[in-house]
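Known limitations

Files may contain more than one protein. Parsers should not assume a single record per file. Below, a two-record file is shown to illustrate correct handling: read the sequence, read the token line, then continue until end of file.
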Amino acid sequence: MRARITRAAAGAGRDASEITLIGVTKLVPAERVVLGVRAGLRDLGENYVQEADAKLPAVREALAARAETPPALRWHAIGRLQRNKARDVARLFDVVHSVDRIELARELDRRAGEASRRLAVFFQVNLCAEPQKGGAAPNAVPALVAACAELAHLDPTGLMVVPADDPDPEAARPAFAALRELAGELRARPGGERLRHLSMGMSNDFEVAIEEGATHVRVGTALFGPRGGTA
């Protein structure tokens, strides 16, 4: 996986060290997550808060049981969120990739403050106007970014997109390019100067995403095999 990232980065004239590999552990048992950590993964992503609530301590316990010094891990919340999950998100995760409305951002800020924590956040953008997916409409993102700049316990760090489903990786390229262009525009606006990162690309299309500027790729199946499998 690292070799594929390095090749994609080199082909785009980029340094692979700029790219964070997030191992997506949705439905992956804790013992397999531990194998990934032992192989070098340090950033891990979960879609579901309830699953993460059980898995995170299980991973820590499994690492401790091996008489290892647990490495510093960053846990990323990458799934669509409801406000009523904000307290658990602020407790469990270090980074949130799916902030798409100010009400959610304010609740995350409040809960992070109660936990004496600071959360890095990505703003999810729904570029394809798909009603079944989360994300703010592109024209709503500037106001969202400006409002979140005032929140004391959130660190706005970038934009995130989930492109339309398509087996052809090239089909995602326009969405990735559009997200990069939107980030460039936002950096010139109030509150947008901190949007340095782009969370885009999954198992099927992360190499295209890297070519278009991704700094964070969210890879599950290509690392851990099919959900419920043994790879």
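...continuing to the second record:
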Amino acid sequence: MAKEFRYYPKKHLYTINGRPVPSVTQIIRGIFGEFNNPNAEWYMQRGSAVHLAIHLEINNKLDWNTVDPRITGYINAFHKFLKETGYKTHISECQMFSKQLQFAGTADVVLKDEKDKLILADFKSSIDPVVDLQLGGYSLLWTQNYSNVIKKMCAIELNESGQYKLRWVEDAYRAERIFMCCLQLYNWKLLNNKN
């Protein structure tokens, strides 16, 4: 896998056999666009910092002395979520690709419930229903990279206050199918230079 799949974090670029492929997020943004937010750069930096801090915390490598106080609440919200649900982390920042479908992505976290069933989860600072499609894309990637099945998916809205909210994907199969439509439309737009 290492030879054919590469991720370049500074460029947020995925390649399969040296050829750039779109990420799940790029595909979703290519279809639905982004909100026109004058502070978008700050929110992207904050989101990256929160994701990295949680990933380091999960792997017992977080140095709290290096944590920006502006993101402490988000990390606390994740701790509260784990404590209240009883879920355990299985893997975080899971990079995956599909050679067949030519796209890639990084799932925020895969959790285990009390029966050791897997739950695919994505962190958000606010939840939009389109997150179902994003999770559908990650679910497709998971299926092509791992043998164990994921049947439950959710978005976890982490708040600065240390609180969280959940959005469960009610129909994982439907989310995957709609994501596949997005992938096909994204590729069509690229092929035909449509904006």
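Parsers that stop after the first record will miss the second one. For reference, the second record is described as follows. The first strand starts at residue 5 and ends at 8.
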